[in-house]
C-alpha cells in the first residue's frame, strides 16, 4: 500500500505596528508639527512599521493626494516584515499647514493604521499694494498712505520712502491672520506734503525673514502725489 504524505503550511497573519514617523533620525510624535521650513526647502520623512505578516503596504498622503515614496523591506526569521518608507517633497505655498500622513495596511487589519505630522512652512509675502489720494492735494495738508502686504509667514515689515529717503514718521501697523496661517500687514502713515512733493513718489517696501534668508528682493510699489 502506497502512503502519501501531504505537508500543509499555513500563513498566520499578524498585524503591523502603528507607524512611526522620523525626520533626520529623530522620531516625531504623532500629530506633531515639523519645522519651520522655508518655502522651496526639501522635506524628507521616514515611516517605519514592523511585525506585519504578510508584508505591509506603506504609503504617504497629503490630503487625498498619494505621494511618491521609496520603501525598504526587511524580513525577520519568523516571517514578519519591517518596512521603512521614505518620502521627499519640495515645499511650496500650497503646503501651508499641510498634514503628511503615513498609511500602513495588510490583510491582518480591517483599516489602515495612520500616523501624521503637520508642516510648519514659512513663506515670503505674495502681494503688496499702496493706496493714497487719487486727487491733487493742497500743500500743507496731511495725506494718508496705506500699504497692504499679504500672504507672509512670519508677518512682513513695511518700510516707507519719500523718493529715496526713508520716512521718519511713525506708522500705524495692523496685523491680520488669514485662514491659511499667513499674515496681512497693513501699514498706515500720515504724511505732510509741500510743493517740494509735487509729482513726488512715495514707496512702500515689504519683506520678511524668508526673503532675507533666501536673498530675494523685497516687494516694492510706488504712489505719485500731485500737490497744488
Would you kindly provide a written description of the structure presented here, covering whatever features stand out?
- A 5-stranded antiparallel β-sheet has the order 2-1-4-8-7, with no helix packed on it.
- It is mainly beta and about 230 residues long.
- The chain contains 1 helix and 18 strands.
- A hairpin with a 7-residue loop joins β9 (about 100-105) and β10.
- Helix content is about 5%, strand content about 55%.
- It has one helix at about 210-215; strands at about 20-25, 25-30, 35-40, 40-50, 55-60, 65, 70-75, 80-90, 100-105, 115-120, 125-130, 140-150, 155-160, 165, 170-175, 185-190, 200-205, 220-225.
- It folds into 2 domains: about 15-120, Sandwich (Immunoglobulin-like), CATH 2.60.40; about 125-225, Immunoglobulins (Immunoglobulin-like).
- Pfam families: C2-set_2.
- This is Ig-like domain-containing protein.
